[in-house]
């Protein structure tokens, strides 16, 4: 194993299909038209010296090191900014070029510290490499003149010197080492799209400046790490590299945060992780990252991690550490006892969207083959289950239709119920890049999310709808498109069921669905809505991206169908640049759905009542499978309260914090006799657990994650599990204890079983993934290279199905007691329930959840910015601090749910999507009033949490 | 959650499904409700639904009642203590 070195071609690749042949240093080179001489040379294996060029950003031509001579042309053009032309003859090394380069390097080095031996970039410094490459032997100017290097010049203070900025928790900015190549500024602008950095001053005064001469932490910087990656010197350096030193080997793996599924190189020294660097060949992220994936991995070695299995008889007892064997045999005995006493269906399991496909597959296999029922579900229940149902109905598959590269060809983008710059930041950056190139944006969201107006991006339309009225707005868009004759008739006739379309067209054409009528309850002005509809229908390639603001409603599934209708009606399916794109919340939520985590279906979305599918698994597993659907998570909790569901195995999910109506969840858990929690930390659910099985992180195991674009990416083990066992081994040993004859020696064998039983995974194997890098399912004999775009020649179900989408107001309504609507979301630096990110330095950006409230509503209630407020709904109440902002409309309040002490889900209700029981997180009627401090519930809960974290024989660390 | 609350929730869920299918073409309505419940409701939930129906369908939308002839009535409750195909306690 060695360090993976990626070739830097200096400038981005050209997409031209026309080829140009030229001669560089006597070698004939053929490259696409538009390629720079620098890149063409590198492709021929000739490395032209360079400093300001790197292939993650466009050519800039400032360092004057990459000069070349071209026969028949005057002067010495820079190779990064000069495109190739046919029959050009280039020389990269001549006497004249050598002199110029050495002279340039002399100037650079005359204003640079010579502390190479103790510098953090030692061994990874392009300036050092270039000094070597040009043969710099002497600096004739000396080091005594004006400089940025030393704090003092002789006895005087050096005003040009600036101290190191260490404000960012993950990297430092040392201005004394800066060569002002602008790579960081351009990375922030072109790759990340935040424009947080600039060059201040001119000439020798030029400096990199975050914001207006601010510290990094105080600036607009979002800590994505692109600047650090771009920096050729030690000016911007990861603090981990400063602390540890340069890595010596690396492995490509997949981020375990959001559903974008970025590929990273985990750079190691021994078993210590030095840093995570985005992998340029990663097809989801194309070399970019966000603060979570790049830096927030400290939770993996946090002191809160539990490393030994634990048992307790009652949830009021302290935990007792036990051996793995004792834990497994205890669970097996308890689960069998419960089944004997209360019936076979009295236990179940929850698979994790954070674990690998292989681990998820094993948990559902344990439930179906070992427990003998289908009581298995996954946290997709509370996020994207309506996507599965809605897209399954309309198109025939439960997944997004595109790859992320597709955005590069979109002309009009609808973002509805999603906040990509916070929730899916790397996709957000790719979207912003396309928008800066001129694509148009329509945002449909109750809040003014950043994308509505952000540097160099402005939405053409923002439809600020009232929470809960998605279906009405989507149907009104369809009304405009159909009644104004903008529907793509040729596409519909060819690809969809024409009579269903006619039925649907008649339905949406009804005056009741016109924007003028719906305006009264959606709050979206009719003229804005008409403009948005016209733009989407006639603006070229139209793509729809959506998130949990669509699904987490009582009409979540209906909205997904309305989105599918809109895409079909405008002919925006089946080619690059278009499509229906659910932005998945967790790293492997797509995979956990694919792997048969839902109680009604086996891997590959095949219903449990289908005899042929059951037969496949029955033969392989040697059991008879139950043909009835099992309980979904909310149904499990209902059954627990009712007394017919008594035991559960929960892998990597914190239902107490993440699921709605906390009191109901805790009542359900409390009614159970054996709750087994398998996680990294004693999470909130573990407060009600009888057995705790320690989990392993994504760095500690092999496997695969499937991202939002159906891409199956490898996860590679780079260190030994701190708890001793990878999660798949834990499930296997539990299965063995329950009498199942499982003998997987490696996760690749589990993937082989998945491929053998699930047609859409037919060709997937670890060898094949190693060869291909990654593939998007379906990947089988019909699609050997995978399927970047789906429904290319026709829909999976045959003809696309238009479905009527009648708006039904949610039962959750405002009234005199609860006059405001609460909606929820997440922010960039924190992830989901925060179990991971709260245990990293990311808390510096978001130490607590705040309630966003409009100044008008705040004033009426006498609330000032930063005040403690009580937030109450018919389910419960909690307290948190207010943040006054006009990002939310009057009548709407908003909060995140990253911190357990906020307990936002004490407020949310048990209303859910009609089709899938996905909870209605996004609409809760609430009242907000001033408060002095925590509610009784919060105090009681804190008390319970503290008691539940006692471990016998261990002194609790002071909080 | 008491028995009544549980029943109330079940009725609400059934009615939500019926409400969606009410807006669909007439021929698909009852079939749609029944197919949905057969596909996604665990036998315990269907058993409770039939209890409501057998006791007069109080609170249930007429479409749910109409669909009930197409909903699979679960076999009688699996009895505890009869291992029902599973291994004996360890």
Description:
The complex is a heterodimer of chains A (959) and B (90). Chain A is α/β, with parallel strands linked by helices and 959 residues long. Chain A has 5 domains: 19-133, Ubiquitin-like (UB roll); 152-301, Alpha-Beta Plaits; 325-371 and 588-768, Rossmann fold, CATH 3.40.50; 385-575, 3-Layer(aba) Sandwich (Dimethylsulfoxide Reductase, domain 2), CATH 3.40.228; 820-948, Barwin-like endoglucanases (Beta Barrel), CATH 2.40.40. Chain A has a 7-stranded mixed sheet with strand order 15-14-29-28-27-16-17. Chain A has a 6-stranded mixed barrel with strand order 33-37-34-36-35-38. In chain A, strands 22-19-18-23-24 form a 5-stranded parallel sheet. Chain B is mainly α and 90 residues long. Chain B has 4 helices and no strands. Chain B has helices at 3-22, 29-40, 43-54, 62-67. In chain B, helix 1 crosses helix 2 and helix 1 packs across helix 3 (43-54). The A-B interface holds A 329, 332-333, 336-337, 339-346, 371-372, 374-375, 503, 554, 558, 599-600, 607, 609, 624, 628-632, 635, 638-639, 641-642, 644, 664, 667, 738-739, 803-806, 808, 811, 910, 912, 914-917 and B 1, 3, 6, 9, 12-13, 16-17, 19-20, 22-25, 36, 38-45, 74, 77-81, 83-90. Chain A: Residues 18-96 form the 2Fe-2S ferredoxin-type domain. Chain A: Residues 169-200, 213-241 form the 4Fe-4S ferredoxin-type domain. Chain A: Residues 248-304 form the 4Fe-4S Mo/W bis-MGD-type domain. Chain A: Its EC number is 1.17.1.9.
């Amino acid at each position: 194993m060695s360090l993976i070195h990626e070739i830097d071609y200096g400038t981005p690749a050209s997409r031209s299909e026309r080829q140009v042949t030229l001669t560089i240093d006597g070698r004939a080179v053929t490259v696409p038209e538009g390629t720079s001489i620098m890149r063409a040379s590198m492709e021929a294996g000739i490395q032209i010296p360079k400093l300001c060029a790197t292939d993650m950003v466009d050519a800039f031509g400032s360092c004057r090191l990459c000069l070349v001579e071209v026969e028949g042309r005057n002067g010495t053009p820079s190779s990064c900014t000069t495109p190739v032309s046919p029959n050009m003859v280039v020389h990269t090394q001549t006497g004249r070029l050598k002199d110029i380069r050495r002279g340039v390097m002399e100037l650079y080095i005359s204003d640079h510290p010579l502390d190479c031996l103790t510098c953090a970039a030692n061994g990874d410094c392009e300036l050092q490499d270039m000094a070597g490459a040009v043969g710099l032997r002497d600096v004739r100017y000396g080091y005594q003149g004006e400089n940025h290097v030393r704090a003092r010049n002789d006895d005087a203070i050096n005003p040009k010197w600036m101290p190191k900025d260490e404000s960012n928790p993950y990297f430092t900015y040392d201005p004394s080492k800066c060569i002002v190549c602008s790579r960081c500024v351009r990375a922030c602008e072109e790759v990340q799209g935040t424009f947080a950095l600039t060059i201040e001053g001119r000439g020798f005064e030029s400096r990199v400046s975050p914001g207006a001469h601010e510290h990094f932490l105080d600036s607009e910087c979002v800590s994505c790490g692109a600047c650090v990656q771009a920096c050729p010197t030690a000016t911007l350096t990861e603090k981990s590299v400063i602390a540890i030193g340069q890595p010596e080997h690396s492995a490509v793996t997949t981020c375990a945060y959001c559903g974008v599924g970025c590929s990273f190189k985990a750079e190691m020294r021994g078993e210590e992780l030095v840093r995570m660097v985005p992998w340029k060949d990663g097809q989801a992220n194309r070399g970019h990252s966000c603060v979570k994936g790049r830096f927030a991995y400290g939770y993996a070695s946090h002191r809160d991690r539990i490393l030994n299995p634990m048992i307790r008889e009652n949830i009021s007892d302290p935990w007792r550490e036990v051996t793995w064997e004792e834990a497994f045999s205890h669970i097996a005995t308890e689960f069998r006892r419960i089944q004997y006493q209360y019936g076979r269906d009295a236990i179940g399991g929850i698979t994790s969207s954070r674990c690998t496909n292989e681990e998820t597959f094993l948990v559902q296999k344990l439930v179906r083959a070992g427990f003998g029922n289908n009581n298995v579900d996954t946290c997709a229940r509370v996020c994207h289950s309506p996507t599965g149902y809605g897209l399954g109905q309309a198109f025939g598959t439960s997944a997004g239709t595109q790859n992320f590269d597709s955005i590069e060809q979109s002309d009009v983008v609808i973002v509805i119920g999603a906040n990509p710059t916070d929730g899916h930041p790397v996709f957000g950056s790719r979207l912003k890049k396309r928008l800066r190139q001129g694509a148009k944006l329509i945002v449909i969201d109750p809040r003014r999310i950043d994308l509505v107006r952000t540097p160099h991006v402005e939405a053409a339309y923002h439809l600020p709808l009232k929470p809960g009225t998605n279906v009405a707005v989507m149907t009104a868009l369809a009304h405009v498109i159909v009644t104004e004759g903008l529907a793509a008739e040729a596409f519909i006739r060819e690809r969809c069921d024409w009579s269903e379309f006619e039925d649907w067209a008649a339905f949406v054409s009804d005056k009741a669905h016109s924007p003028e009528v719906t305006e009264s309850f959606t709050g979206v002005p009719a003229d804005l809505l008409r403009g948005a509809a016209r733009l989407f229908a006639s603006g070229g390639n139209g793509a729809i991206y959506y998130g949990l603001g669509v699904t987490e409603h009582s009409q979540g599934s209906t909205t997904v169908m309305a989105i599918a209708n809109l895409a079909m009606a405008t002919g925006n399916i089946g080619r690059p640049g278009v499509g229906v794109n659910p932005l998945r919340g967790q790293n492997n939520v797509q995979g956990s759905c694919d792997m048969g985590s839902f109680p009604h279906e086996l891997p590959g979305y095949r219903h449990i009542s289908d005899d042929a599918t059951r037969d496949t698994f029955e033969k392989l597993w040697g059991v008879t499978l139950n043909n009835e659907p099992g309980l979904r998570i909310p149904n499990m909790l209902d059954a627990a309260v009712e007394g017919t569901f008594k035991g559960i195995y929960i892998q990597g999910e914190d239902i107490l914090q993440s699921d709605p109506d906390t009191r109901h969840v805790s009542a359900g858990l409390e009614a159970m006799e054996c709750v087994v929690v398998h996680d990294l930390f004693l999470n909130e659910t573990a407060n009600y657990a009888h057995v705790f099985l320690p989990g392993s992180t994504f760095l500690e195991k092999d496997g695969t994650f499937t991202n939002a674009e159906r891409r199956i990416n490898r996860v590679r083990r780079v260190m030994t599990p701190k708890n001793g066992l990878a999660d798949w081994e834990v499930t296997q040993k539990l299965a063995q204890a329950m009498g199942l004859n499982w003998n997987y020696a490696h996760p690749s064998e589990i993937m082989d079983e998945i491929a053998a039983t699930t047609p859409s995974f037919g060709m997937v194997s670890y060898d094949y993934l190693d060869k291909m890098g990654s593939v998007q399912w379906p990947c089988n004999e019909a699609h050997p290279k995978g399927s970047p775009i789906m429904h290319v020649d026709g829909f999976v179900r045959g003809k696309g199905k238009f479905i009527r989408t009648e708006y039904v107001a949610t039962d959750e309504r405002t009234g005199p007691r609860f006059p405001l609507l609460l909606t929820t979301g997440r922010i960039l630096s924190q992830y989901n329930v925060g179990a991971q990110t709260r245990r990293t330095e990311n808390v510096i950006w978001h130490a607590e959840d705040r309630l966003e409230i409009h100044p008008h509503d705040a004033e009426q209630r006498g609330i000032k910015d930063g005040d403690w407020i009580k937030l109450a709904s018919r389910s419960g109440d909690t307290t948190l601090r207010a943040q006054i902002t006009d990002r939310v409309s009057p009548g709407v309040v908003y909060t995140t749910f990253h911190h357990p002490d906020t307990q936002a889900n004490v407020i949310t209700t048990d209303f859910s999507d009609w089709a899938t029981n996905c909870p209605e997180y996004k609409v809760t009627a609430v009242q907000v009033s001033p408060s002095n401090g925590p509610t009784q519930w919060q105090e009681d809960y804190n008390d319970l949490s503290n008691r539940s974290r006692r471990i016998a024989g261990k002194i609790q660390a002071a909080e | 959650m008491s028995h009544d609350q549980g029943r109330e929730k079940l009725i609400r869920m059934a009615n939500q499904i019926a409400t969606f299918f009410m807006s669909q073409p007439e021929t698909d309505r009852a079939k749609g409700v029944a197919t949905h419940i057969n596909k996604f409701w665990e036998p315990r939930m269907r058993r409770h639904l039939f209890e409501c129906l057998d006791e007069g369908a109080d609170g249930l939308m007429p479409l749910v009642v109409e669909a009930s002839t197409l909903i699979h009535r679960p076999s009688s409750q699996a009895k505890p203590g009869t291992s029902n195909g599973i291994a004996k306690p360890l």
